[in-house]
């Protein structure tokens, strides 16, 4: 289960080019998977970055002078976590390229980019944007093929795009809340909104039958996680397919059906254990809500996934 570790950054840069740009690369490099950054000219460099993150969502507000950002193949490794970034352009005009797609971004435009594959962003003038970065796995339950939308433009001024944009603006204005006791809940709301937006946009794209079926199965699993008898057999039966076909759909996902069910249940338990509104509920009650009826088995499985017993994690999150 991927987690973000960068907590909070608030740094201004202005003045001599080489020194400030070197510092800029260092700070931005600590917040995001490795990037190559270069300047198109020799003018003085200015920049400002604010960032804060929960375990699964990093929100950033970036503004700076013109420069070029590249996520090159030699910078990509399996240890980077497989993050997605959803950006909302605020000022300036930029060019984003990924998977052979080129999109010109202007104020109000949103786009998705996948850090597991190369991309580049060219800013030829002063610019600013908001970025929501999160592990791809956290929205897989509603948009398992979200990466296929990378490099396409989303209107951030209407419909679901406007709702997500409003959320991003609100959270950036109150970044301290993301690090506070309600940070997990705020992240969950944001990720639900982002996942819904991407799922809606993906539904409008031409899809292969397997992709549509896989998305339906992920959603079914998410809706039925509280049921203790949720199994590959019951999932296959609900979708009128064989268990063998179900396993073949998941083979390219990097996990089995049973492992995914366990992962999603554990993640919901982890979130609820850190939710101050559920502090009166016992660990076993929370576990049972997500299909873990054997308290001993749950504690062992939780510790294997997160490295600590559920009660210890609960105390640390408080």
UniProtKB/TrEMBL annotation:
This is AraC family transcriptional regulator. The keyword Magnesium does not apply. Keywords: DNA-binding, Transcription, Transcription regulation. PANTHER family: ARAC SUBFAMILY (PTHR46796:SF6), HTH-TYPE TRANSCRIPTIONAL ACTIVATOR RHAS-RELATED (PTHR46796). InterPro entries: AraC-bd_2, AraC_XylS_family_regulators, Homeodomain-like_sf, HTH_AraC, Tscrpt_reg_AraC-type_HTH. It comes from the Bacteria. Pfam families: AraC_binding_2, HTH_18. The lineage of its organism: Bacteria, Bacillati, Actinomycetota, Actinomycetes, Micrococcales. Residues 215-316 form the HTH araC/xylS-type domain.
